[in-house]
């Protein structure tokens, strides 16, 4: 449920940024990296994941992109850096939101990348691309239909959605 989701995120992600810096790559990518070859560093594999995700989205100038569960902002900023797109990232973590906004400002993308503290289910605008990396596992099996229904309602008819999640049997 919407209210409980934020409490769950707060418990898991609103911890000290320094804690996450101890075990994540420098860009604080939280989910699976994409190791293209043996010996690749975690930072390189996370950059490879960002490139791989971006390629699958088939971005074009002027598109509106939604990043559900935008974390510390790395994917949204990457997408804006390689394509002339506007990205909206939504998160329920106040810690992630603060750093994501800071990073967008520092990178010079504050006009094209914005981050909001909000549940994706409260959005009502449409997007050309929707991406969600590492958030779906928090949705819960009973809420899968609600998630996909909401994505469908937010996605333009000719849009592309990409969902990256940890598998589950």
Give a structural overview:
This protein is of the alpha/beta class. A five-stranded parallel sheet has the order 3-2-1-4-5. Strand 4 (127-133), helix 6 (144-154) and strand 5 (155-164) form a beta-alpha-beta unit. The protein has helices at residues 2-13, 17-23, 42-57, 74-82, 94-107, 144-154; strands spanning 64-68, 86-91, 113-117, 127-133, 155-164. The longest helix has 16 residues, at 42-57.
Sum up the structure in keywords.
169 residues; alpha/beta; 5-stranded parallel sheet; 6 helices; 5 strands; 41% helix
Summarize the helices and strands and which ones pair or pack.
Blueprint: H1 2-13, H2 17-23, H3 42-57, E1 64-68, H4 74-82, E2 86-91, H5 94-107, E3 113-117, E4 127-133, H6 144-154, E5 155-164
Parallel strand pairs: 1-2, 1-4, 2-3, 4-5
- Helical amount: 40-55%
Low-confidence stretches: none
The H-and-E topology, N to C, reads as HHHEHEHEEHE
- So what's the overall shape? globular
Radius of gyration, CA atoms, in whole angstroms = 15 Å
Count of β-strands: 5
Note the beta-strand portion: 15-25%
Main beta-sheet annotation: 5 strands, parallel
Mean pLDDT across the residues is 88
Structural class: alpha/beta
- Separate helix tally: 6
Distance separating the two termini: 23 Å
| Biggest sheet strand line-up | 3-2-1-4-5
Condensed summary:
The chain is built from 6 helices and 5 strands; from the N terminus they run H-H-H-E-H-E-H-E-E-H-E.
């Amino acid at each position: 449920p919407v209210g409980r989701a934020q409490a769950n995120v707060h418990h898991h992600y609103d911890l000290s940024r320094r804690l996450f810096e101890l075990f994540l790559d420098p860009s604080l990518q939280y989910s699976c990296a994409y190791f293209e070859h043996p010996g690749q560093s975690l930072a390189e594999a996370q950059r490879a994941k960002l490139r791989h995700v971006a390629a699958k989205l088939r971005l074009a100038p002027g598109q509106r992109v939604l990043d559900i569960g935008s974390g510390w902002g790395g994917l949204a900023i990457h997408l804006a850096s390689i394509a002339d797109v506007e990205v909206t990232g939504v998160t329920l973590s106040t810690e992630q939101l603060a750093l994501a906004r800071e990073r967008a400002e520092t990178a010079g993308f504050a006009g094209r990348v914005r981050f909001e503290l909000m549940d994706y289910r409260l959005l009502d605008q449409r997007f050309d691309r929707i991406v969600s990396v590492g958030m779906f596992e928090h949705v819960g099996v009973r809420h899968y239909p609600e998630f996909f229904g909401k994505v469908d309602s937010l996605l333009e008819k000719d849009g592309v959605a990409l969902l990256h999640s940890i598998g589950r049997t």
